Amino acid sequence: MKFNELDQLRERLDDVNLQLLELVNLRAAIVKQIGQIKNKQGMNRFDPVRERQMLDQLIKFNNGPFENSTIEHIFKEIFKAGLELIEDDDRKELLV
Amino acid sequence: MKFNELDQLRERLDDVNLQLLELVNLRAAIVKQIGQIKNKQGMNRFDPVRERQMLDQLIKFNNGPFENSTIEHIFKEIFKAGLELIEDDDRKELLV
């Protein structure tokens, strides 16, 4: 009986993983669009004030079970990956 | 005009951030439940085979823009945070 419960929870976890995958990539696509606009306007891609605002908003809405510090850590990794994606785009543009 | 476009994209990004927050915490809650069952059954909390299976599934369904290596990196951080959450639970239980 317990084994079924574990299997069911694992199925739910797989489902949540795929939803997270979709959202993380949707976020990356939006970040790419923002990067293109900023690029055209000669704006700086990295905006530490905006990043801090986003983290503060996430912490404000965080009801756990993850601690605020963990949420901050995970999202900083996601933000960094987004920034690297924009930098890759810029490099490709330079090569064209 | 362009400024509005940027603001709109930022609003979408904030919205996606909050959806991600909810899913990341939902995932953490499921991981906690799995940890409790494993604990009762005396099973090992960390299962590298299962972790590899989850990563393989994510890579299989990854349509970008993030590269597979980036997806793997982000999810490994999320998995690690989940595992730390279970370990915290265990420590609290020992203190009771």
CATH architecture of chain A: Up-down Bundle
Shape of chain A: flat
User: Unreliable segments of chain A (pLDDT under 50, ≥5 consecutive)?
Assistant: none
> What is the class of chain A in the CATH system?
Mainly Alpha
User: What oligomeric state best describes the polypeptide chains here?
Assistant: homodimer
Instruction: Tell me the β content of chain A.
Output: under 5%
Structural class of chain A: mainly alpha
The CATH topology of chain A comes to: Chorismate Mutase Domain, subunit A
- What is the percent of helical residues of chain A? over 70%
> What would you report as the Rg of chain A, rounded to the nearest angstrom?
18 Å
Main β sheet profile of chain A: none
End-to-end distance of chain A: 60 Å
Succession of helices and strands of chain A? HHH
Q: At the fourth CATH level, what is the homologous superfamily of chain A?
A: Chorismate mutase
Strands of chain A, count: 0
Mean pLDDT reading of chain A: 91
What is the largest interface, and how many residues per chain?
A: A-B, 50 and 50 residues
Number of domains of chain A: 1
Count helical runs of chain A. 3
Domain Chorismate mutase (chains A, B): 1-90
Organism (chains A, B): Ornithinibacillus bavariensis
Protein name (chains A, B): Protein AroA(G)
